[in-house]
Amino acid sequence: MSVVTETPRRGRPRDPAxxxxxxxxxxxLLEEEGFASATIQAISQRSGxxxxxxxxxxxxxxxxxxHAALRGFAHIEVRATGDLGRDxxxxxxxxxDVYGTPAAQTAIPGLMASYQRGAVPAPxxxxxxxxxxxxxxxxxxxxxxxxxPSLDPDEIFDLLLGAILxxxxxxxxxxxxxxxxxxxxxxxxxxxxxx
Amino acid sequence: MSVVTETPRRGRPRDPAxxxxxxxxxxxLLEEEGFASATIQAISQRSGxxxxxxxxxxxxxxxxxxHAALRGFAHIEVRATGDLGRDxxxxxxxxxDVYGTPAAQTAIPGLMASYQRGAVPAPxxxxxxxxxxxxxxxxxxxxxxxxxPSLDPDEIFDLLLGAILxxxxxxxxxxxxxxxxxxxxxxxxxxxxxx
Lengths: 195, 195
What we know:
Two copies of one chain form a homodimer. Chain A is mainly alpha-helical. Chain A contains eleven helices and no strands. In chain A, helix 2 (16-33) crosses helix 7 (102-116), helix 6 (84-99) packs across helix 9 and helix 9 (153-169) runs antiparallel to helix 11. The model of chain A is unreliable at 1-9 and 121-126 (pLDDT under 50).
């Protein structure tokens, strides 16, 4: 049997159509039935992909939900131009777009609650970690009179992330007009070198 | 019957022991069984207070959960001394203390998910709205060379709130050491008048 000669690790090339089916089913369940209902069993039933095949692709239910709900992050590509305000505006807008999808708005509080209970091993957490390098590049590309090099870019990123979270999930903050401009103006001000 | 002569609005003075029993039962359920299990029925059973008496005190389950999980906010009292860094440090520390309780860490993601689904009328939302005035007072009391008066204090507050949320709920941010100092340093820097 040819299967025997194939080690599981090499295997056949993965069928991307299966990944897409599973992600789509997860998004639909999140949107239609909520976080608690997006179980592997339900996702398997809706997608027609058996549970073991799902677990071969995503180690945990939460990793799959995170991937499905926040897959827009994979498409965030803000090239640093050196124009800090413009680059940040595009960056924040892309972030808010991802957080603003119905699936993300359902998934994020559910993921937060699960992380809070310590349910997830660190590596699967928060796909937007992969977006950090783009943010650093934006800061690096800006001219020195706009960015204080002594600042820790990780802390600025966390602050930006918090502002986006608040604008997405805290009603009083979410109510403000022009959130992108508000957030960008504050970050531009914050990173400016002090006199 | 004396009951007839009492209008429901005047009523007898509320027994604060009943409020305390209900709040305590809610906190325990959040801690032990999670957000979904903290239903009015379960709270009623555990506290021994009938559901109608609970609804007389809190219009919705979510209002009760918010009150119970975040009741520490009622005790935040940071008097503005004019020393911006010191006042902010005390303020942020008090906030992190409230968010750091097990009941809050369970309740906040659950509340966020519910708000997201539009389940709550605006007035019941986010008890920490009541903390805003203290923050404004801290900014107002600081000397002019430390705070740019042209800044919108609401926006600064939202940014601070976002930073605290991120430090509480986003693993990468939560991992940073000395979160209070980190957040306060950035806010102090942000509000400083520009040259």
